[in-house]
Amino acid sequence: MGRRGRKLMDLTGRVFSRLTVVRLSHKDRHGYTHWLCRCECGNEKTILGASLRSGATKSCRCWNQEAGAQRVKHGCARSGQTTAEHRAWVEMRQRCSNPRRVGWKYYGGRGIRVCWRWLSLDGFQNFLEDMGPRPSPEHSLDRIDNDSHYEPGNVRWATKTEQSKNRRKFTRTRRVPGVRPDESLPIAA
Ligand SMILES: [Zn+2]
Predict the structure, then answer these.
(1) Pick from 124, 120, 131: which is nearest to 47 by CA?
(2) 125 CA distance to ligand 1 centroid (A)?
(3) What pLDDT is stored for residue 181 in this prediction?
(4) Domain membership of residue 109 as a residue range
């Protein structure tokens, strides 16, 4: 899982929805690359490369704010606007760490882990930053590769239909190679 030694993918000049990548900003202590991006609205923001590539981050946040305003208009938003996202984050951690949980064998029980970026002290903030707000109540967290972990680039918001399409490709009870159930995800350099 470590990102050590993986060749740096240069995203300079690439366009991801409203964002154009200006230059590499830095590599964080978990080994993830962050890129300085210019948004169509004129803002500049540093964004995680994996979130750009997976499509989780599409703007400097101006889109999120517009989506948030929409939600308020439609009366779906509760006072804490991140309630649904927080619940998803807690449940994700539960699935991977609580053997008493229903469905444990599909998650923690077969070695699926949550990355340190999302487990750390700023875990929820990082998660929210990487994933963006839940697009609608029909969306929940979906791992793109069902045999890989909860980490930036492998998780998206998807509807039940999108998820079942994705699931069919995988055997659900296969053990994830190389990770023991009692092991944490390694922290890349
Ligand atoms: Zn913007």
Answers:
(1) 131
(2) 19
(3) 43
(4) 83-167
Indicate whether 2 pLDDT > 80.
no
For residues 42 and 94, state if they share a domain.
Answer: no
| Partners of 37 in beta bridges | 21, 45
How many A from CA of 40 to the centre of ligand 1? 6
Does 22 or 173 have the greater pLDDT score? 22
Answer yes or no: do 99 and 56 share one domain. Answer: no
Calculate how far, in angstroms, residue 83's C-alpha sits from the geometric centre of ligand 1.
23
Q: What is the pTM of this model?
A: 0.54
Give 59 Cα–ligand 1 centroid separation in angstroms. 5
Question: Looking at the structure, do residues 63 and 118 belong to the same domain, yes or no?
Answer: no
| Spacing of C-alpha 120 from chain mean position | 14
Is residue 97 domain-shared with residue 163, that is, in the same domain? yes
For residue 121, being part of any structural domain is answered with: yes
Number of Cβ within 10 Å of residue 184's Cβ equals 13
Q: How far is the CA of 145 from the centre of ligand 1 (A)?
A: 30
CA–centroid distance, 100 to ligand 1, in Å, is: 43
